[in-house]
Design goal:
The chain is an all-alpha fold. Helix content is 77%, strand content 0%.
Length: 305
């Protein structure tokens, strides 16, 4: 198991380093933050002073080496717009993003897996057709449209739920449904496909011959062996949601990391954008590592590869 985990850690570290290089270059190519911070002032001396203060007058190699040195010392820089350490700014938004990510994943797994299993178990039946139609719609309808329709129906027309902000379970319901909509369709379709492959296997036929109940065959034996691709997509979706559901957070005025990175990008706040990007890379690597380890428990043969 140890060599398996170490190899994943090395790959993860290389991935994070590559992401840091790409994000660093992209932020520099996106525009001049000194011009944004200068505002309406056209004073060339002030403009040059801002560039010197931000270190933008240095060569790119020098800027990147300084950035990497600071990261290795635990210094992620100060937000140019908030005038505070970027880590503190991101920490304030992380709990809200984690709450929304957990609720969205609960919606997608809680609906997608049972519907996918039922669709596979009743292949060609009404539930199968209904589930496939839902999966198609879920991946075809944009998230922003779903969010707007949820606000229009449940907030504006019915007045049942709040349309924006945080404050309790009621505030979380609509954003969770909106952010979990696309994920539910993906989980449903993948679960159905994986279950169909497993249900046609010889050991499932043998379990039925032994007289095991259909429910035990499907939910205990077949689902466990079909769970690896389900775990994969769930891990990817969780990592994506943790690092910011930009569209959903914008529609529902949810104060998470997604809305923060939009503000930072619009304001050319390089340190904050780089910190969020680094957070996203680390989150994806850690979630994928966790998923890889979980694979080994689902199928111990993987650790031997």
């Amino acid at each position: 198991m140890l060599p398996y985990v170490l190899s994943r850690l090395v790959r993860g570290a290389l991935t994070i380093f590559g992401v840091m290089i790409v994000i660093f270059l992209l932020t520099r190519a996106s525009g001049d933050p000194a011009a944004t911070l200068q505002g309406d002032s056209n004073d060339p001396a002030r403009y040059e002073q801002i560039r010197r203060d931000l270190g933008l007058d240095e060569p790119l190699i020098k800027q990147f080496s300084t950035y990497m040195g600071d990261i290795l010392q635990g210094d992620f820089g100060e937000s140019w717009n908030y005038r505070r350490p970027t880590v503190d700014v991101v920490k304030e938004r992380l709990p809200e993003s984690a709450q929304l990510a957990g609720a969205g994943l609960l919606v997608s797994i809680g609906l997608g897996v049972p519907l996918g299993v039922i669709a596979a178990a009743r292949r060609g039946g009404f539930m199968d057709k209904l589930s496939r139609a839902f999966g198609l719609l879920g991946q075809s309808i944009p998230t922003f449209w779903v969010g707007i329709m949820l606000v229009l129906i449940f907030s504006v027309q019915l007045g049942m739920l709040p349309s924006s902000g945080t404050g309790g379970i009621k505030h979380l319901i609509l954003p969770a449904i909106a952010v979990g909509w696309f994920s539910t369709a993906s989980v449903l379709r993948l679960t159905r496909s994986a279950m169909l492959d497993v249900l046609d296997s010889e050991y499932i036929k043998m379990a039925r011959i032994k007289g095991l109940s259909e429910g035990r065959v499907i939910w205990r034996h077949a689902l466990k062996n079909a769970s690896i691709p389900i775990v994969t997509i769930a891990g990817i979706q969780l990592a994506a949601l943790l690092t910011g559901a930009v569209v959903t957070e914008s529609i529902f005025a949810w104060p998470g990391v997604g809305s923060l990175v939009v503000t930072a990008a619009n304001g050319r706040d390089f340190p904050l954008v780089q910190t969020v990007a680094l957070l996203a890379a680390v989150t994806f690597v850690l979630v994928n590592l966790s998923v890889d380890i979980l694979y080994g428990y689902l199928d111990p043969r993987i650790w031997a590869k």
